[in-house]
Amino acid sequence: MASEIQPFTAPDDGPEDQAVHHSINEGDIATPASFSPVASPSGPPITSRRLSEITGSLSSAESLDLVPLPSGVPEPIEICIQRSSSKLSGGSGSLLAVPRKASDPSRSSAASTLATPDQESQPIPNPTFADDARSIQRPRSSSIADRIEAVMRESHSRFYDGTKSPEKWLLAVLLAPLFAVIPFWIPGLPDADETSTTAMVWHFVTLFVMDFAGSTMYPFVPGALLTVPLFRTPWGQFLMVPYLSAGIVTLGGIIPYLIFDVFPVPMLAVIQAAAIIPLVFVYLYFFMNPAVLQERSHRADFFVSVGILVGVTVVYGVIYPLGGALFNQLEGIPQAFMALAFCVVRGIYEKVGTRLLSKRAQDGYPLFIFSSCFCHETFIAILMNRVSAWYVFAVFIVYDLSENLYHVLELRRLQYKTECSETARQLVTVSLLMEFAEMIAPLQYTICSFAIYYFNKRPNDNFALVEDKAFWQGIFFNCLDVVGEVCVFMFLTRVIKKVTGLRSVKALGRLCVIYGVAFLAFQITILGFFLQIQYAPGGNDLTFRFNWLKDGAQWVGGLCWTTPEDPTACDL
C-alpha cells in the first residue's frame, strides 16, 4: 500500500551513473532502447518498485496513467529517443527518410537506431502500418529491405560495412562481363563445316567454355535474396557452373551428334535450355541447404528469384530471339511496328512483374528491374546494324528516354509531397538501376562488336555477311543511344540530389556492393547467351531453314549455307 512505503536515501552516485544509456547490439541488429533509472533522493528507482507497492490492487481496466503517485515520489522521467534520420534528408524535408520497422526490431540495421544529440530531445511518432514501405511484406528472419535502406544512408550497416569499395564494384559490373565473353573473340577456331575428330573436340571444348557464361546466373541469382546460404558448402555455387556446362554440352551437343551424326546440331541453344532444367533440379536436390525450403520466408524468397529466372528465360531467351529473326526480314514501316512490339512486350513484362513483386516481395525489385532492362537493351543493341531507317531507331530511343524522363518528372512532382515517400523511394531505386542498365548494355555490346568484327566475325551470324556501312551504322546508333542515356542519367542525378540529397553514383556503387554478384551473373549469362545464338556451330537458325542438313550444302558464314537448289541464299 502507498502508506507502507519506507523512506529511502539515494547513494551519492557520480554524474556518470545517472546518464541515460542506449543499448545497441554488437551484431548491428537493433535492440529496444534500455536505460538505467535515475536515483531519487526520496525513493527507490521508479522501475524497481513493484506495482502492488504503489497502487495496491489495480484492475486490468484501470489506466496506469490515472493512478496518483504517493507523496515524496518524484515524477517519472520521460526518456525520448528519436530515430536517426539519414543525412540524405537532414534539413531538406527529404522523401527518403526510411522509417524503422516497429514490429520486428531484429530486422533493422544499427544505423536506424543511432540518434544524434539534437534528436534525442524530440519525441518519437508511433510508426503506423501505412508509414512503413516494408510493412506489406511477409515476415522474415532478416530483411533484405535493409539492404536498400543501407544504400540510402551515409552510415554503415550490417549489409554495408565500408570494407568493400563501391567504386571498384561499380567498375567490376561495368567491365567484368567483357572478359567473360572472350571465347567469342578468339580467331583460329575450326569452321562450322569441319567435322573431323580434332575439329569436333575443339567445337565441344569451345561450347563448354561458352556455356560457362550461359550458366552463371543459375547458382548465384537464387541466393541473392536469401539470408541463409543456398548450398550446404561454400563451394557449392562455384562447382555448379562447370557441372551445368559439362551437362548441357553432353546432353545437348555430344549425344545428339553421336546419334544423328549431324553438326551443327539444329537449335542447340534450345536443346541446351531444355537440358539445363533437370540438371539444375538434380544439383539442388543433392547440394541445396535444407533450411531454404524448411522455413516459409526463405522458401518464398527462393521461389521469387526462380520466378525472375523463368521470366528472363521465357521473354528474353525465347520470345525476343524469335522476334529478332522476323525483325531482320522486315524493312521500313513494318520493321518500325516490330520495334514497337519489342517495347510493348517489355512494358507488359515489367508491369506484371512489378505488380506481383509489390504484393509479395519488394526486395526483388533490384534484380528484376536490372535483369529486364539489361536483357532488352542488349538485344536491341544487337539489332542496330539491321535497322533499315532512322525512324525505326527513333522508336527504340524515344521509348527508353521517355520512360526515364517520366521517372524524373514524377520525382520532381513528389518533391513536396511527404505522404508519397514510399513512391519516391521506389522511383529512386527503379530509375537508378534502369538508367544504369540502359547505359552499360549498349556500351558493352559495342565493345564486343569491335572485337568480334575485327578478330573473328565469320562464325558470328550478325557480322559474317554484313557490309562495313551496316556495321558502322550499328556502332553509330549504339553510341548515340549511350550518349542519350548518359545525358538522362546526369539530369536524373541532379533531380535525385535536389529531391532527396542522395548521391546517385555512390548509391549505385553500394547497390553493386550488395547485389554485385547477382548483377554480374545476369550480365555474363545474358551477354553470353545472345552471342551464342549467333555462333555458327550452335546451329540456332531462327529462320528454321537448316540448309546445312541438305546435300551439297556449303558454309558461307554465320548461319548461312548455300545449296545447289539455292546458290544465292546468302546474297545480301
From TrEMBL:
Annotated keywords: Membrane, Transmembrane, Transmembrane helix
| Lineage top rank: taxon | Eukaryota
Bias-annotated ranges (Polar residues): 105-123
Q: Where is this region: Disordered?
A: 1-54, 84-141
What are the transmembrane regions? 169-188, 200-226, 238-259, 265-288, 300-320, 332-349, 430-455, 475-496, 508-531
- From the Swiss-Prot or TrEMBL record, give the protein name: Uncharacterized protein
